[in-house]
Amino acid sequence: MKVLQVNTVCGTGSTGRIATDIYKILEKQGYESSIAYGRGSAPKDINSIKIGTDFNNYMHVAKTRLFDKHGFSSIKTTKEFIKKAKEYNPDVIHLHNIHGYFLNIELLFNYLKEVNKPVVWTLHDCWTFTGHCAYFDYVECDKWKLACNNCPQKNSYPKSLFVDNSKNNYKRKKELFTGIKNMTIVTPSKWLGELAKQSFLKEYSVSVIHNGVDLDKFKHTDSDFRAKNGLEGKFLILGVANIWDRRKGLNDFIELSRRLSSDYKIIIVGISKEQKKNLPDNIIAITRTNNIEELVEIYSAADVFVNTTYEDNFPTTNLEALACGTPVITYDTGGSVESIIDENCIIPKGNVDILVNTILEKKFKTAKFYDPNVIDINKEKCFEKYLELYKEVGENK
User: Fold this and answer.
1) Once rounded to an integer, what is the mean pLDDT over residues 284-304?
2) Which of 63, 215, 314, 323 could form a Cys-Cys staple with 335, CB 3.0–4.6 A?
3) How far is residue 342 from each of residues 209, 252, 337, 338, 364, measured CA to CA in Å?
4) What share of the chain has pLDDT > 70, as a percent?
5) The dihedral sign for the CA sequence 332, 336, 337, 342
6) Is the pLDDT of residue 95 over 60?
């Protein structure tokens, strides 16, 4: 069996690491695999196909910014990729994020319908079935259920400066993404799976395969993080995100810092240098790190991990914290709650009052915060389910 995965990135970011994790499980089981990607570079030990160039990405960004036609540029590079895909001749094609300024979705899906291979499509957000945005919870929009128009998030990713083309984008996506004879939708959370079933993708079977983490790397580790930062005797509250934007709830952490005494210290990982300048002095801001050992030490040192996300699918940060033995408090948002098994650790979205009380009263301290019998976060066990799915869809072709 040969599997071709397609994703924005390879080996970096959450989706890029998921793709390479699946690749290595396939390799371990003796199957052949390749990852096609459009941004950055790929690890040297991965059989990969680069789609396009930096210049192509910039041109796609320009078309998105000016005309709100994300996914409808990159014609030449997509044709070149399709030629390589035909030469590779996979048995199963596994799509991840196909947005990200590197693919022409019209050419891609015409190819998929023509080649008639089994397709697995893992949705990591909601972009697939909207006319523009990747998430819509924050603005409480449900236009995607019927037909997008007058998008309230035109200026959010994928950002358009002038034109609102959401109505036409929605129509074209619906035409392109439906009618595949053998396609299975996968979502990392039940929440996103239910949304997919309400969208124009409802003709497809939807499976939920949770993301996982490497339990050999993410585990409780003794460290000198507290000593190095003068934090002995402090109660440490941790927040981690790849990008701290409005939907990740950075302002709620700032508000939290105002309401807690000096006995409490907030640590935020993933902050930009510009954001760091504007944070209160009682927040320790750490810029983005790809050093897993450093991240594990921080998770392990924290007393509680707080996820103030306003929109999310199935955040890996929750899993990483739990694997390191740190309880997690999260807003009742999307699939973020699906890794949490104690209701004391689930806070109404945006309710900083309850969040503060939960921390002060240490309600989470007695919570049963992880049980592998309820949800298994071992990535190898999680991603082996993809192998089972590949075999199943291969038999149905």
Assistant:
1) 90
2) 314
3) 21, 22, 9, 10, 8
4) 97
5) negative
6) yes
Confirm whether 38 is domain-assigned: yes
179 pLDDT exceeds 90?
yes
- pLDDT value at 87 more than 70: yes
pLDDT on residue 341: 85
pLDDT band at 366 (very low <50, low <70, confident <90, very high): low
- The one-letter amino acid code at 202 reads K
pLDDT at 264 over 90: yes
Q: How far apart are CA 144 and CA 233, in angstroms?
A: 49
Q: Which residues contact 353 (CB under 8 A, 6 or more apart)?
A: none
How far is it, in rounded angstroms, from Cα 180 to Cα 124? 20
Residues 165 and 18 placed together within one structural domain of the fold: yes
Residues 387 and 309 placed together within one structural domain of the fold: no
The CATH number given to whatever domain includes residue 196 is 3.40.50.2000
* Sheet with 235-240, edge to edge strand ranges: 283-287, 264-271, 235-240, 304-307, 328-331, 346-347
Mind spelling out the 3-state secondary structure of the chain?
CEEEEEECCCCCHHHHHHHHHHHHHHHHCCCEEEEEECCCCCCCCCCEEECCCHHHHHHHHHHHHHHCCCCCCCHHHHHHHHHHHHHHCCCEEEECCCCCCCCCHHHHHHHHHHHCCCEEEECCCCHHHCCCCCCCCCCCCCHHHCCCCCCCCCCCCCCCCCCCCHHHHHHHHHHHHCCCCCEEEEECCHHHHHHHHHCCCCCCEEEECCCCECCCCCCCCCCCHHHHCCCCCCEEEEEECCCCCHHHCHHHHHHHHHHCCCCEEEEEEEECHHHHHCCCCCEEEEECCCCHHHHHHHHHHCCEEEECCCCCCCCHHHHHHHHCCCCEEEECCCCHHHHCCCHHHEECCCCHHHHHHHHHCCHHHHCCCCCCCCCCCEHHHHHHHHHHHHHHHHHCC
